[in-house]
Write a structure and sequence with these properties.
Strand 1 and strand 2 form a beta hairpin. Strands 2-1-3-4 form a 4-stranded antiparallel sheet, with helices on both faces. It has 196 residues and is α+β, with helices and mostly antiparallel strands. 48% of the residues lie in helices and 10% in strands.
């Protein structure tokens, strides 16, 4: 089963036609496409800036049902008996390390899994601000490439985004279509926030 974002925004050309819960945006896209079959409609994940594709076949309720997993239904059933502690949300994955890394991890209290979880949680805490800035830049960059890649000042705006020059960025996109510009500013807000 494909996973969908919780919130997204759809555009017909440069005009925003819907924003909010993914199921409601999909229905709005379906209705817009029915009214104007030649329209170019694109939807984007509000967290990642990635394009979202909808299966618009059937009734509005059928479209909604495909986007919302039924209560208690796992997204994908694991084959056989799952490793780890699935009731706690632990997921088994393969990690490739050098022998000296495995030796160090094995010598830690609780073993390799506990040590890795502690390292990841520590890094998430220490780098949270930088991660949020990077994620906002990437989401904004994806959306800008899709919706404004041929707009005047696109390359310079992209440079300003990654240089975290908010004033220059805002000036460069000031003449872009209003709905596209507003969405870009919302996606990029964390990119220009002061680091903690």
């Amino acid at each position: 089963m494909t996973s969908f974002p919780q919130k997204c925004t759809a555009f017909a050309g440069v005009e925003r036609i819907a924003s909010g819960e993914v199921s409601e945006v999909a229905v709005a896209v379906k209705r817009h496409a029915a009214g104007d079959p030649a329209a170019s409609v694109l939807a984007f994940d509000d967290d990642t800036g990635r394009p979202v594709d909808f299966d618009l076949r059937g009734s509005d309720d059928e479209v909604r049902a495909r986007l919302v997993p039924e209560a208690g239904e796992p997204e994908e059933a694991p084959p056989g008996r799952p490793r780890g502690r699935p009731k706690l949300g632990v997921v088994a994955r393969e990690v490739t390390l050098l022998p000296r890394h495995w030796d160090w991890l094995g010598a830690q209290p609780g073993g390799a899994s506990v040590a890795l979880r502690k390292l990841v949680e520590g890094a998430r805490t220490v780098h949270r601000s930088a991660d949020q800035i990077r994620q906002a830049q990437e989401a904004t960059g994806r959306f800008m490439h899709a919706m404004a890649g041929d707009a005047a000042g696109y390359e310079e705006a992209t440079r300003a985004l990654y240089a975290r020059d908010g004033d220059r960025f805002a000036a460069l996109i000031a003449d872009w279509p209003q709905d596209v510009r507003a969405y870009i500013l919302a996606l990029s807000a964390a990119a220009f926030a002061a680091e903690a």
